[in-house]
Design goal:
The protein is of the alpha+beta class. The chain has twelve helices and 17 strands. The structure holds adenosine-5'-triphosphate and magnesium ion (MG).
C-alpha cells in the first residue's frame, strides 16, 4: 500500500469502518477527497465533495483505531410551486411541520475531548464558530447524548459568512434545527428534537405549527408573506417524523436581498446562484396569481435588486475606491483571531484584519474582504476594455 506522509489514517481500519474497500480509501486520499481537517486536530478528517454514500462535508474522526462519523447536513430541495410540491413530496402523510428557515450559516456541533467543536457545512472546523458555540450550548447535553449531532443556524450580524440584522440579535446566536444519530444518520422527530432542545435551554428555530396537507399551501403562503415583510428568509417544511425529505420555500424579499448583495460583486458570484433566484420569482408570481399592481411591484423589486448594486459598484470603482465586504467578529480569546485569519486564507480569501478593539472582556475585530475580480473587471470596463 502506498504511503501518504501527511495522513496518519489507518487505511485498513478506516475502510472496515466505512464498509469500503481499502483501495477506495486510498483513492479518496490520493484524489484529495479525504483530507486532514486543519487546526489543532490531526485525527479529524474531512470528505471533500461527494464520498460514496456520505453527505457532502462529512467528517471522520479517528479515535486511535475506533472511528466516528459526523455526517454532513443533507441538501434540502426547493419547492418552486408550493401547492404541487407539497402534494408530491408529502402525499403519504397527513400533516407537515413548518419551521422558519433562518438565514445564517449551517453549523454542526459535537463534544470532543471535553470541548465543543463547530463544523461548517463543508466539514471545516471553524475557529470562530467553535469559540462562540461554547457560550451558546450546554455541554451537559453532549455528555448525556453523546450519540447525537446537533445542527443549527448561526445567525446575526457578527460573522464572516452571512450578516443579518433582521433577527434582533446583537452579535451572534445559535438556533437548533436538526439532531441526528452519529451511527445511522437518522434524524430525531421534530417533536423529540424540540423537546430535547427545550430541556437543555437551547435556542431553536421557530415552529409555526403542524399543518394538515389540505390547508398547508394556503397557510404557508400567508406565513411567507409575513416573513417577507420582516426581511426573514422563509420556511422549511418537514415530515414530523423526519422520515421523508424536507423541502424549503422562501420569500421574494429575501431572494432579492440575496441578489442585491450578489450583484455588488457581480463578477465573483456563481451564475447558477443568480439565475436560480430570478427563476424563483417567476414561479412565485405565477402561483400567487398577482394583480397587475402586485406584479409591477415584484418587477420593480427584482429589477432594483439587480441593477442598483451594480451601478453602485461601478460608481465606487470610478471614484477610485475599491469595493469590499466588511464585517466584524467578536472573540474572547485573542488567539482565535489569528487562527481565524489563517483559516480564511487557507480557504482562499483575501482578507484584511484591523487591530482588535477591546470591549469588556471581548475583542471586536473589523475585517475587510477584497473582491478583486469585480474590482478588476469594472476597472477594465471603465478603461474601455471589451467584455470578452
Ligand atoms: P443556497 O442558499 O445557495 O441555495 P444553502 O446551502 O445555504 O444554499 P439553503 O438554500 O440555504 O442551502 O437551505 C438549506 C440550509 O437552510 C441548511 O443548510 C440550514 O443551514 C438552513 N436552515 C435554516 N433554518 C433551517 C431549518 N429550520 N431547518 C433546516 N435547515 C435550516
Ligand atoms: Mg442558507
Amino acid at each position: 500500500m502506498k504511503y501518504y506522509p501527511e495522513i496518519k489514517l489507518d487505511i485498513e481500519k478506516a475502510a472496515e469502518f466505512l464498509e469500503l474497500p481499502p483501495s477506495r480509501i486510498a483513492e479518496l486520499i490520493e484524489k484529495r477527497k479525504l483530507q486532514h481537517n486543519w487546526d489543532d486536530f490531526d485525527n479529524i478528517y474531512r470528505f471533500e465533495g461527494h464520498a460514496p454514500h456520505l453527505e457532502d462535508g462529512t467528517v471522520l474522526i479517528d479515535h486511535h483505531g475506533s472511528f466516528e462519523l459526523i455526517r454532513g447536513f443533507p441538501k434540502i430541495k426547493r419547492a418552486m410551486l408550493l401547492g404541487p410540491a407539497l402534494k408530491k413530496s408529502f402525499s403519504e402523510i397527513g400533516s407537515v411541520a413548518v419551521e422558519e428557515k433562518m438565514n445564517g450559516y449551517n453549523v454542526r456541533v459535537i463534544d470532543y475531548n471535553r470541548k465543543l467543536i463547530a463544523f461548517t457545512r463543508s466539514g471545516h472546523i471553524c475557529p470562530y464558530s467553535t469559540e462562540r458555540v461554547q457560550n451558546f450550548l450546554e455541554r451537559d447535553f453532549f455528555k448525556e447524548h453523546a450519540d447525537i449531532i446537533v445542527y443549527g443556524e448561526m445567525a446575526g450580524p457578527e460573522n464572516p459568512y452571512v450578516q443579518k440584522y433582521v433577527y434582533d440579535i446583537e452579535s451572534l446566536d445559535f438556533f437548533v434545527f436538526d439532531m441526528r444519530y452519529k451511527t445511522t444518520g437518522e434524524a430525531l422527530s421534530v417533536n423529540r428534537r424540540r423537546e430535547l432542545a427545550e430541556q437543555y435551554g437551547f435556542n431553536q428555530v421557530r415552529l409555526f405549527g403542524e399543518l394538515g396537507i389540505g390547508e398547508a399551501p394556503e397557510k404557508i403562503t400567508e406565513i411567507i408573506r409575513e416573513l417577507g415583510k420582516k426581511g426573514h428568509e422563509g420556511v422549511v417544511i418537514k415530515d414530523p417524523e423526519m422520515v421523508l425529505q424536507p423541502i424549503k420555500y422562501t420569500c421574494s424579499e429575501s431572494n432579492c436581498a440575496d441578489l442585491n448583495q450578489a450583484f455588488r460583486f457581480y463578477n465573483e458570484t456563481g451564475r447558477d446562484y443568480l439565475f436560480s433566484r430570478v427563476v424563483r420569482e417567476g414561479f412565485q408570481s405565477y402561483e400567487w396569481a398577482e394583480s397587475e399592481d402586485e406584479f409591477q411591484k415584484r418587477c420593480q423589486r427584482l429589477g432594483e435588486s439587480i441593477l442598483r448594486p451594480m451601478k453602485e459598484t461601478i460608481k465606487t470603482v470610478q471614484n477610485g475606491e475599491r469595493i469590499s465586504d466588511s464585517f466584524q467578529i467578536r472573540v474572547r480569546d485573542k488567539k482565535v483571531i489569528y487562527k481565524f485569519k489563517s483559516y480564511l486564507e487557507r480557504l482562499g480569501l483575501y482578507v484584511m484584519f484591523e487591530m482588535p478593539e477591546r470591549q469588556g472582556n471581548e475583542y471586536v475585530i473589523k475585517i475587510r474582504k477584497i473582491n478583486k475580480s469585480t474590482n478588476d473587471k469594472t476597472l477594465a470596463m471603465l478603461e474601455g476594455q471589451l467584455w470578452s
